[in-house]
């Protein structure tokens, strides 16, 4: 037995879920009857397993150098044990920590000019509308659902999320509403159809733009809803919006551009108006991507240019831009359940997904969806909704003296009574004024 074999044998022995490894020459490591068996096509994967570089193991699977027997959920559970604690980061103040911070700023600036952002968004979202339709809900809402009730289906939880955002923003009929990164139009159309707003959305995805434009035309919403293929930096500031939502978007902005991003949002928002920023955040304060090679895997195969920031950094940058944080809600386990629902949906349609997107893309997304679900469950990454206002400078106005915005400074209006719970068969109404 070689040195790597011996190291891997010790790692296998420490797993709570049995894993076996079949080497190219036929040698088998690990117990008989293991829940998961990895079949290696080359010896390079052996080193990645022995060192716990899960990202490289995932790359080997995507590139066809590795296959497995067993369920995807068991495979991801084993991967989580092999990865250990993937949030390790350099100590603050250390030379390596300073260098990493500097390099991160440089790389972020390089990765997030308008042309690069467009390429990166299209790399992910323009894979195929039909591919995403296989495992998303009927509205194709590609962000964290809100399981207000445990028995909700994915479709119901996504509608609950859309309504939760609209309630937080206190949308009213006739208001101008902007959705930055509008995706396949779920929130944009929900806000227009259920709350009567005049809605504008932007995206960098050509596929999403075409899809939403078709829906606008089919539903006769052309006079009240617009969808634009546009970078946020190009938005016209001359007529500010009453309310703005940014859902699953700011992760693509990048650390270096985040101050300019929130400054732009502040200028787009009328004084006293509200912003809802919904997005993935880092699970720790000193890391911007998952370790054990997982972040590198996501960068290469899923979200090139994506960056994770801790909620504290987001709030700091938001405040520096002149926006006041009003409410912060952590939906981390909701995203874990959402991702498992997506993963299960994809696993149930593997043959169709393979025909549409090809083997390589399918393998990458299988690992990405299930691996992300586990990461949210374990707190390695998180999901926050942040409600903020652009203060209007008038301490005498508002629901309470000093409010300086339409926010009532209580949460009661955000949560409908149980009897009003939204479902796929009911149409919610705007909260009472």
Describe this structure as you would to a colleague.
The chain is α/β, with parallel strands linked by helices and 433 residues long. 43% of the residues lie in helices and 16% in strands. The protein has 16 helices and 11 strands. The strands form 2 sheets. Strands 7-6-5-8-9-11-10 form a 7-stranded mixed β-sheet. A 4-stranded mixed β-sheet has the order 2-1-3-4. Helix 11 links the parallel strand 8 and strand 9. The longest helix is centred in the last third of the chain and has 19 residues. The N and C termini lie far apart (74 Å).
Provide a count of the helices: 16
Shape: elongated
The major sheet is characterized as:
7 strands, mixed
Helix/strand order, N-terminal first: HEEEHHEHHHHHEHEHEEHEHHEHHHE
Number of distinct beta strands: 11
The low-pLDDT segments are 89-99, 102-106, 418-433
Report the sheet-strand fraction.
15-25%
Can you give the helix content as a percent range?
40-55%
Radius of gyration: 23 Å
Secondary-structure content class? alpha/beta
The assembly state of the depicted protein chains is: single chain
Compute the average pLDDT.
Answer: 85
Write out the strand line-up for the largest beta sheet, numbering strands in chain order.
7-6-5-8-9-11-10
Distance between the first and last residues' Cα: 74 Å
């Amino acid at each position: 037995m070689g040195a790597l074999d011996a190291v891997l044998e010790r790692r296998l022995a420490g797993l709570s879920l049995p894993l076996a490894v079949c080497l190219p020459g036929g040698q088998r490591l690990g117990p008989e009857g293991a829940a998961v068996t990895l079949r290696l096509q080359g010896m390079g994967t052996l080193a990645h397993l022995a060192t716990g570089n899960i990202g490289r193991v995932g790359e080997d699977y995507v590139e066809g150098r590795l296959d497995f027997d067993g369920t995807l959920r068991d495979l991801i559970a084993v991967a989580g044990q092999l990865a250990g604690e993937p949030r390790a980061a350099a100590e603050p103040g250390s030379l390596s920590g300073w260098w990493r911070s500097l390099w991160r700023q440089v790389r972020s600036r390089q990765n997030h000019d308008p042309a690069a952002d467009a390429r990166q968004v299209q790399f992910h979202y323009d894979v195929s509308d039909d591919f995403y339709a296989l495992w998303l809900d009927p509205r194709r809402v590609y962000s964290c659902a809100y399981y207000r009730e445990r028995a909700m289906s994915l479709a119901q939880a996504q509608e609950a999320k859309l309504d939760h955002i609209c309630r937080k923003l206190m949308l009213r009929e006739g208001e101008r509403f902007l959705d930055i990164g509008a995706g396949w139009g779920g929130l944009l159309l929900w806000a227009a159809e259920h709350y009567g707003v005049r809605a504008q959305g932007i995206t960098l995805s050509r596929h999403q733009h075409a899809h939403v434009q078709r829906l606008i035309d089919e539903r006769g919403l052309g006079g009240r809803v617009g969808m634009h293929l546009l970078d946020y930096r190009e938005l016209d500031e001359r007529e500010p919006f009453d309310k703005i939502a940014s859902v699953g978007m700011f992760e693509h902005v990048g650390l270096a551009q985040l101050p300019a991003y929130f400054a732009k949002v502040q200028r787009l928002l009328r004084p006293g108006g509200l912003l809802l920023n919904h997005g993935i955040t880092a699970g720790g304060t000193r890391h911007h991507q998952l370790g054990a090679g997982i972040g590198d895997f996501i960068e290469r195969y899923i979200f090139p240019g994506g960056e994770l920031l801790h909620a504290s950094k987001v709030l700091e940058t938001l405040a520096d831009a002149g926006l006041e944080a009003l409410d912060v809600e952590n939906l981390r386990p909701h995203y874990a359940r959402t991702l498992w629902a997506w993963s299960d949906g994809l696993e149930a349609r593997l043959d169709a997904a393979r025909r549409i997107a090809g083997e390589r893309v399918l393998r990458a997304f299988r690992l990405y969806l299930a691996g992300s679900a586990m990461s949210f469950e374990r707190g390695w990454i998180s999901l926050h909704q942040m409600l903020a206002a652009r203060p209007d400078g008038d301490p005498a106005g508002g629901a309470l003296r000093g409010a300086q915005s339409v926010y009532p400074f209580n949460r009661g209006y955000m949560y409908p009574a149980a009897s009003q719970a939204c479902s796929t068969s009911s149409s919610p109404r705007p909260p009472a004024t």
